[in-house]
């Protein structure tokens, strides 16, 4: 209802004006505080030289932390200034007065009495807005249950600080707000959904933070969106104890990171680490690796479809992604580690400072809590002092022996000249010997530990992978399989780049031999598009992070990398996360009923198995349309007609081709008719164009108002991989979907087209 028609309009208007004024006052105060803190820091820095410096440092640190807090508050409040809250609940706790709670993206309290002006959407009581029905309700906070009556749930549409609509919600009104939010067009980037989070999504956002959570969600069910809201929830709930740098979001590519970049500051989570798996591996190992991109392998598979070579490509990728391969590396690394320990005693001339047995004891028993190379460092450090002491003892012994000899000469030789000569010779010998020993003692440890070769991770891996006999011994594979494995790295070694499937093994070797410092290992992980990762990748990350605080989200139906990725979530639980909680999302919020029905229909006709059909939120637009182009010009005309739809309703457009090559062909054909549209590649880190050409695999995770699935040379057949690619492409559309085929519709599209009778 229009705000002014609502009976409470005046009160609500007043409340909004009061809230805005309060925010303004807080912002002004914060601005002033900021300059005060900055001033204090400056002053402390000046005084640092002549005052007690420790006091000044305390002063600087205190002011810096206040400054940071103030700046964070300032940022958050300035974000919400135009729309301070989106809903209100009236809650009467048992035995207490009714409270009107206004819910927004950040909390705000009156300074004088600590009464809430805005309640944060992540707070325990705000859960009543997302889950509670009018009537008796309860919520949990700090391990306690609070009960009471919920008498009102109200939503507001506030635009640029003005109250536009007020809705008292029952189930239908809530739907209205969701509908409205879904009909708006896709920007280039994801947006926050705090005001329309649905019950099934809310449960995932607020699920137990200490257990791994695996979410299977259909296309468009909000996985990416709620993953980011869950991060915001973590930050709020863990508050002081949470360090944003301990949280890491792993995304499929950099384009995707750009796609989520707008929503992060809105939700106040922009300080968390965001990376891709290859980038994380690269950064952790510290070596300059050039990873062939994930999709190169996919392109190769698409090109080799149904050939024997593709079976080998798949076999190698799935072997390298398995826990069996991890065990192979374990056996191999054990031998590498056994060889690592220095041979022989640590000696100083003929003296044994430490026996080989002692050294082995430290390496294999005492310091096994450290990775081998760190063990060696530790041993060097510990031995430094002890070995010096022992060496000094030995040197003293040698010195005593000489002194004894000299004494004997002094008392034993009568002739003075002879005696003096002998004493001088012995003294010189002694000095020389002691000098030599001292010098040797200085270098003793370094020389001894020089035996420990610093192997490069890449070399260790290649030593195994290019040696057929080693592969057969450690890997228990047959001759043919060993050759296929060796071939898979040889091709790349020549180009000094590595395959993505080698990333986890390399990271594992690094972790086993060198370890990853605790500060560099994230404690909270969010992995989106998780179906594309394999058990080995999950296991190695889990080993490094040594934590169970994982949120894993994916959709097996979109598992276009399933030859190497996760085939069932159960397998992932069995292999790596036995303690995981599992949740599903079946409602799709992105696409219209018409598009989702067509995508589901396509899945049912395909050869794919085990897919999960999505249920669209009821929202309608036109049915997908099929067009055949016979000439270049015809193709261009059809594309032009679609692009002409661009306006307020439809803003973002994507033409999706099956592969990179197909996209290049589409671009070329359109260019011939003066339509220039950029082709996205996985090297791109962002895009700002309203219309792009994008290969199907790269479109995964993204969304557009209008999608055109174009086939020039490459159609989609019924096999599993093509079905998944087509499914991904179809489910990227928010509102309209077009198919344009050059010449007759063939394969899967041919079947769908026939069925429509167009
Ligand atoms: N509760 C909601 N309210 C409003 N919009 C929503 C809601 N949930 C999801 N959406 C919208 O649905 C669209 C799909 O969300 P998102 O991209 O997070 O889904 P996804 O499950 O990650 O999709 P996919 O796996 O297909 O990439 C986005 O535009 C998002 O804003």
UniProtKB/TrEMBL annotation:
GO cellular component term, pick one: cytosol
GO BP annotations listed: recombinational repair
PANTHER family reported in the protein's UniProt record: DNA HELICASE IV (PTHR11070:SF17), UVRD / RECB / PCRA DNA HELICASE FAMILY MEMBER (PTHR11070)
Annotated organism of origin: Texcoconibacillus texcoconensis
NCBIfam families tied to this protein: HelD_BACSU (NF041464)
GO molecular function: 3'-5' DNA helicase activity; ATP binding; DNA binding; hydrolase activity
InterPro entries: DExx_box_DNA_helicase_dom_sf (IPR013986), DNA_helicase_UvrD/REP (IPR000212), HelD_bacillota (IPR048228), P-loop_NTPase (IPR027417), UvrD-like_ATP-bd (IPR014016), UvrD-like_helicase_C (IPR027785)
Record-listed E.C. numbers: 3.6.4.12
Name of the molecule in the record: DNA helicase-2/ATP-dependent DNA helicase PcrA
Residue ranges that the Swiss-Prot or TrEMBL entry lists as coiled coil: none
Amino acids binding ATP: 217-224
Keyword terms, alphabetized: ATP-binding, Helicase, Hydrolase, Nucleotide-binding
Pfam family, one: UvrD_C_2
UniProt xrefs under SUPFAM superfamilies: P-loop containing nucleoside triphosphate hydrolases
Keyword Aminoacyl-tRNA synthetase: no
Domain UvrD-like helicase ATP-binding: 196-592
